[in-house]
Write a structure and sequence with these properties.
alpha+beta; 5-stranded mixed sheet; 4-stranded antiparallel sheet
Length: 246
């Protein structure tokens, strides 16, 4: 009887997956996952009181719980901080992957010290975890939405020098400026800068003859009309360069 019900469920899962995705390999994969999951559940149910099984499964549950919580904290804390650093403050295009790996490993080690077997026996912890995972999920979805919206925008992460006079060269580093055959424009205030070299991640520009001196906003506009984050640049008056700055 059990084999018959398993066969019926497998057929239903196969048909449902085939209707939803219209790809037979997905349907076969869903059936395989169901069969493997059924075997695992059956094995656990038959041996859940075995001392050997408990000695093996308890560390597995602790490590799995620690890993899930670590990934949740990663979504709740690390990803928003990375987003602020890379997309709001424009400090660097990307944080080194080693930082994320070390962060997750530290969290796993810390959470592994907790006896989750005893804590998960109370309904209070289940509700707290459910609320926590819901918050983490919402934060991650918002992160992905904002990340995708900004992913292909031009971004300025560095430029040198920070001030200069007409005809001086300025080097800009960033991402998504576009290839040389799709070069855009760079504006310093209302004046368009001369392009000496254009690359997707690096620009070499010439300061134009300014209408006025002082602090100006420098920004990149791609061929598609996408604007970069503006940065402050000071256009100096050549007549005052020899004067002693106070």
């Amino acid at each position: 009887m059990k084999q018959l019900s398993t066969f019926i469920y497998s057929c239903l899962i196969f048909l449902l997956t085939l209707v939803l995705f219209k790809v037979i390999i997905y349907a076969l994969g869903a059936v395989l996952i169901f069969l493997v999951g059924s075997l695992i559940v059956e094995f656990i149910w038959e041996h859940h009181n075995s001392p050997l099984f408990l000695a093996i499964i308890n560390p597995v549950i602790n490590i799995s719980s620690s890993a899930i919580l670590s990934l949740s904290f990663y979504s709740l804390l690390f990803l928003p901080v990375e987003f602020v650093i890379t997309e709001i403050l424009f400090i660097t295009p990307k944080l080194p992957s080693q930082i994320a790996i070390v962060f997750i490993i530290l969290l796993v080690v810390i959470f592994s010290l907790v006896n989750w077997q005893s804590r998960l026996k109370t309904i209070k912890y289940y509700l707290m975890l459910l609320l926590f995972f819901s918050v983490c999920g919402l934060v991650y979805l918002k992160y992905r939405e904002e990340k995708l919206a900004r992913e292909y925008l031009p971004k300025i992460y560095s430029y040198s020098p920070k001030r200069g006079i007409q005809a001086e060269l300025v080097k800009i580093g960033g991402v998504n400026f576009g290839p040389v055959w799709k070069g855009g424009e760079v504006y310093l205030g209302e004046e368009r800068m001369g392009v000496v070299n254009w690359d997707d991640k690096s620009l070499l520009l010439e300061i134009p003859v300014p209408r006025k001196f002082g602090m100006m906003k420098l920004k990149v506009i791609t061929k598609e009309g996408k604007n970069s984050n503006p940065v402050q640049f000071e256009i100096r008056n050549p007549a005052t360069l020899n004067q002693v700055e106070k």
